[in-house]
Input
Amino acid sequence: MTKKIKSAASLQKEIAGQARNDGAKHTFLKWNDYIDGKDKSVVSLSEGYSLEQLGHYSFYSDIYELLFYLCILIYSKIVKRTVKMKTDILVIGTGLAGAIAAIIAADNNQKVTIITKTDDVISGSTATAQGGIIYRGINDSKEKLISDITVAGAGHCWLPAVLQLADLGKKLVDELLIERFGINFDSDEQMVNEGQGRKHYAPTKPQLNDCRGVLHMPIDNSINHSDLHLTAEGAHSVRRIIYSKDSTGLTIQKAVIDKLQNHKNIEILTNNIAIDLLTLSHHSKSSLDIYKEPACFGAIIFDSKTNKTFPIFAKKTILATGGLGQIFLHTTNPPEATGDGIALASRAGARLINLEYIQFHPTSFYRKNQKRFLISEAVRGEGGILIDKNGNEFMSRFHSQGNLAPRDVVARSIQNVMLETSAACVYLDISFKGEDWLKARFPTIYDYCLDAGINIAEEPIPVVPAAHYSCGGIGVDLNGRTSLRRLYAVGEISCTGVHGANRLASSSLLEALVWGYLAGKDASIPKEDDEYFPEINDWISETEPMDAALLAQDWTSIRNTMWNYVGLIRTKQRLHRAKKMLRELQLEIEQFYKKAKLSREIIELRNGIETAITVTNATLESPVSRGTHFIES
Ligand SMILES: Cc1cc2nc3c(=O)[nH]c(=O)nc-3n(C[C@H](O)[C@H](O)[C@H](O)COP(=O)(O)OP(=O)(O)OC[C@H]3O[C@@H](n4cnc5c(N)ncnc54)[C@H](O)[C@@H]3O)c2cc1C
Output
């Protein structure tokens, strides 16, 4: 059927009418975001218009009118995907936690949209994880693992969460990582062939899969990967960690992303950064929504390739944005770890807990004016010894577990020794293992150090502590649900309670796997009011260019303040100073954010300062030293 078009204005009215008929569920964008201020009507182009719909036109019609219709047609085709953004489940972050949640939800027939702010879908800390993931060792048991986690966590772990990890962890490694995704962790055979060791594995008994009523896929307990080689890390009472050389995270991530990319129910958007969560209390145009239970119905997204800002409406939103290491001067984290999820959740009003517990990894490669690079704890697990600048071993005088003491103890001991010896770093010696062994077991670390001029088979590695992992985050339950309805958080951005005041090595990949799986399942279950999408206000785009010098200097201020005042060793005075300085800086940043032309950089800076303040406040409100949070009186 065709219809005659009389004028641009009438067409536009029709489109706007259609948009209204679609209901407030669809994306509404400012017309002049796209068509240069020609008309200020708010329209939805979600359905697009065919040539037939545009109708007959006479050769003598106004040529401008024709061009105008064509522009609408072309534009609606181009932006169709962007404008019509409604999905069942929106996952923010393509690290292990987000990717697993997305795959499991998609398996459960949910339409999933997963976004990452990076150009590469392989992003976040997952891809940089070296050491490995907890499995099960010889004479190991759930009870031993629970005890190791809670001891490392300084008695501050939430037991139901630790039990859940111990119950489900190994099974999900078997069922998902090894069986379904086909990940080849290093085996005993490989190690023996490479002259590196002996078998360390004892088969385990099947574990009961009850877990207090949470939903599980059927777990096949007959699976037993008894040929996997096991390594040790700090504060583990047995060797129970499996790995893939010293690039475990990348191996896992590649396999998981491959499944993500080939899943028919999943749409992946790269270069898309979440600016804010959409909540009933903050974004609904209906004033009565304020009386409803606070809930999240999606997020506002900025596409840094097209420079477009648009909302994605979702029945459920899963935050999986990873860590916050970039708010500190020295960090092992990748550039994207700017703590966005904490800032988003904080502004949306979700509950944040345990943020004072920042784990500083004891050993990152030290070279003045060079980016930090993690020297895995597995190096100490394989016998590496920390020495001071005079060659003296020192950990035995700080802790009975010596070089394999919990991370916070090792990190502070290093800091003390650096002060005692007036040295810029200490050293980690693994040279006695020999070149062939080191090249086979730690190829990434070996190559990195060699490139930086250190042959680790001949000399010790210069190391310093660096911010590594956020034990706290968005408080969640056993299924990853946050305090905001329809919002989940998984992986490092969440706080499940597993890590308490200090994380046990190699437990975070496992936590990302377990909670990613459970949140993906839970989010797939329809719940009351899931389909409520209120109308929202239009996004107003600003145009002021960003001043790169301000941006760089603001980041320097945040990072230095956090490192010096909210770092390894804290005092009340330093924390108060930090709070004051960060608050002032935030006012400035908010002011220029409001007027600035959007970019990934400015969004990250706004999130960085918000997260730094949130962490500082949590630290100030926690007067007792525990685990990674150390207050010097
Ligand atoms: C150097 C290093 C080594 C480690 N080694 C180990 C190890 O051996 N074993 C272990 O268990 N743990 C290890 N960890 C910790 C572990 O890797 C992380 O805790 C875990 O991978 C976090 O996974 P995640 O899915 O939560 O987040 P990440 O893998 O960090 O992914 C975060 C994702 O969110 C995206 N994102 C962030 N903000 C936004 C936004 N605003 N909008 C859109 N997308 C966004 C990022 O682009 C990324 O895709 C290590 C960490 C580091 C840094």
Remarks:
- The domain at 548-597+599-620 is CATH 1.20.58.100 (Methane Monooxygenase Hydroxylase; Chain G, domain 1).
